[in-house]
Design brief:
about 190 residues; alpha+beta; four-stranded antiparallel sheet; 6 helices; about 35% helix
C-alpha cells in the first residue's frame, strides 16, 4: 500500500478528492458551476476573482473539465413563503439551498450564512441565505459531486484550493495526499495573452 493510500484513509478531504478524481476520469461529463454573489467583487478581491477565472479557463484548455457556467446570485436570497411561491429565481433558490447543505462524509459546504431579517417598521420577519463571494459546484455526469468552499473538521478549503489541485493533479496525474498541502496561490495560473 502506498503512503498516499494510507494517508487518504485517514484524511477525509483526501478521501473525497480520491473519489472525485476517479469519478471525473470515468465520467461522460464534468463541469463546474460558478456562483458569484455580485458582479462587483468585494474590495481587495478583484485580482482573486481574475485568478479564479484564469484557472477555470486553464482547466477547460487542459480538458480537465468540459466547461464551466457562471450564475449571479445577489447578496441574499429570500426564503420567505411569498418569495418561494414566486417563480422568479425558483431554480436558483433550490440550487443554492442544495449547495448550502451539501455534505459527503466529513466534508461539507461552507461559507453560507442563514439569518433572520426582522423589520419592526413593517412587522415582518423572514429568512435569508447569504452565499459566499464565490462558490463552485462540481457536477460529474449531472450529479453534484462537491462544493467549494468546504470544511472538514474545522479546516476550510477554498475555491482556489479546488482549482489549484485540479490543475496540479493534471500535471502530476496523481491525486495529492492532502489538498491543504498544495499551494493555493494561483499567481502562476495567469494565461499569457
Amino acid at each position: 500500500m502506498s503512503s498516499t493510500e494510507s494517508d487518504s484513509r485517514l484524511d477525509p478531504i483526501a478521501q473525497w478528492w480520491d473519489s472525485y478524481d476517479r469519478e471525473r476520469r470515468q465520467a461522460e461529463s464534468h463541469r463546474l458551476l460558478v456562483f458569484v454573489r455580485s458582479l462587483r467583487p468585494a474590495p481587495g478581491a478583484h485580482e482573486q476573482r481574475a485568478q479564479i477565472f484564469d484557472a477555470l479557463e486553464m482547466a477547460c484548455d487542459e480538458e480537465l473539465i468540459d466547461r464551466y457556467d457562471t450564475r449571479l446570485l445577489g447578496d441574499e436570497l429570500c426564503f420567505c413563503q411569498h418569495c418561494q411561491e414566486v417563480p422568479l429565481g425558483e431554480s436558483v433558490r433550490s440550487d443554492v439551498r442544495r449547495l448550502s447543505t451539501w455534505e459527503e462524509g466529513e466534508v461539507c459546504s461552507a461559507g453560507f450564512h442563514e439569518r433572520q431579517v426582522e423589520c419592526t417598521f413593517t412587522d415582518e420577519a423572514y429568512p435569508v441565505l447569504v452565499p459566499p463571494e464565490t462558490t463552485i459546484a462540481i457536477r460529474v455526469d449531472g450529479s453534484l459531486a462537491g462544493v467549494f468552499p468546504c470544511v472538514v473538521g474545522g479546516t476550510h478549503y477554498s475555491v482556489e484550493t479546488l482549482l489549484t489541485n485540479l490543475l496540479a493533479n493534471s500535471r502530476s496525474e496523481e491525486a495529492p495526499s492532502r489538498t491543504d498541502e498544495v499551494s493555493t496561490d494561483l499567481a502562476g495560473s495567469h494565461r499569457s495573452q
